[in-house]
Amino acid sequence: MRHDPLGYLATELDSIKQQGLYRRLRILEGEQKPKTTVDHRQVVNLSSNNYLGLTTHPRLREAALEATRTLGVGSGSVRTIAGTMDIHMELERRLAAFKKTEAVVVFQSGFAANAGTVAAVLTKDDVVVSDELNHASIIDGSRLSRATIKVFPHKDVDAARRIVRDLPAGQRKLLITDGVFSMDGDVGAVPELCAVAEEYGCIMMVDDAHASGVFGRNGRGTIDHFGMHGRVDVQVGTLSKAIGALGGYVAGSRALIEFLYHRARPFLFSTSHPPAVAAACIAAVDVLEQEPQIIERLWENTRFFKAGLQALGFNTGLSESPITPVIAGEGSLAMKLSDRLFDEGVFAQGIAFPTVARDKARVRTIVTATHTRDELQFALDVFGKVGRELGIL
To answer: Which residues of the chain are in CATH 3.40.640.10 domains?
Structure first.
């Protein structure tokens, strides 16, 4: 009988189970809507990044269907060979105009956009100066670049300045922060870090995945929100969250984008988006520009739900966005909270180490523009009931 060289993984899984952190995939049955069916149970969904409800917006549906009818279901190639279609270039032109930059390149995912860009623009002789809570894709891109990685405490601008100040003046430095942090929902110190980057000649990069479609005029992100146009060299956004489809993009100078055409490995070695995805993303930009009231509904729901959780007595951390953590502390308690919420009709996923610190496990909630007030009030009532039951309140 052959020895199983992966047998040790079963032991690792047993350890995860013993810690109360084992999770099986929840199965969504039907559309990505605020009230839906998951694992045969009807629930209010507070776990989706579908901030504006665009996954089911009629304009996006029709654009995707029409592109499929006229252009087919796939592109058949990577962008640098035969996979760049008119519709891909149109999407990039629209995004560049929307973001007020010279150019944009679209990647297959937000993760690929971050990791591919950082790895492409830096070498082993360079330095990344990164917020400790930046997204995993930034961390992986930094490692792939082989650059030296310097991490500063979360949003500690003075610490970031000290790190940069002590580096050789001629060394290339990339200073990078999330625009909105995905686990805590707080906003990055974008203006202050831009000032540091300018003072010491750093490349300034902002990952705006969770700000795209949420912050700024018509959802242009934190750079627009803070009035930082022209001061951020590399802007990363996503097409997979508020935009409602799939992908990521990098916005910046024409030279940056053309360099990424030649050196970003995810761009070079991945088949381009199906026409339906590109068409849906273009339609989403139309919606952002022409229906800004949908973003205001998102913020009205955010204020209502966040105030409700706080009134109940939950610890919601430092959230400033539609991402509102309900911090439970221990990982096993956060998972119990998530499971009991689900039993009562609220889907809010538990998050524990290594995604967050061991003592900061939480249930992460995200409201959308399409939640009704009744759905949110139901969720608050369930949170109150389960929180008292588990001794969190």
So the answer is: 57-290
| Residues 387 and 312: beta-carbon distance below 8 Å | yes
Q: Please report the sign of the dihedral spanned by the C-alpha atoms of residue 247, residue 279, residue 95, residue 220.
A: negative
Under 8 Å CB-to-CB from 389, ≥6 apart: which residues?
A: 340
**Full-model pTM:** 0.94
Cα–Cα–Cα angle for 252, 241, 258, rounded to 5 degrees: 20
Task: Give the pLDDT of residue 358.
Answer: 86
Catalytic residue list: 182, 210, 241
pLDDT tens string 346-368: 999 999 888 888 889 999 999 99
For residue 131, give both structure tokens.
């917020």
User: Is 18-47+292-389 CATH 3.10.450.30?
Assistant: no
CATH code at 57-290:
3.40.640.10
List b or e across 189-225, with b for residues whose CB sees 16 or more CB atoms inside 10 angstroms. Answer: bbebbbebbeebebbbbbbbbbbbbbbbeebbbbbbb
Per the structure block, which two tokens stand in for 319? 């959230």
Mean pLDDT of 323-335: 94
Q: How far apart are CA 86 and CA 203, in angstroms?
A: 31
pLDDT of residue 136: 86
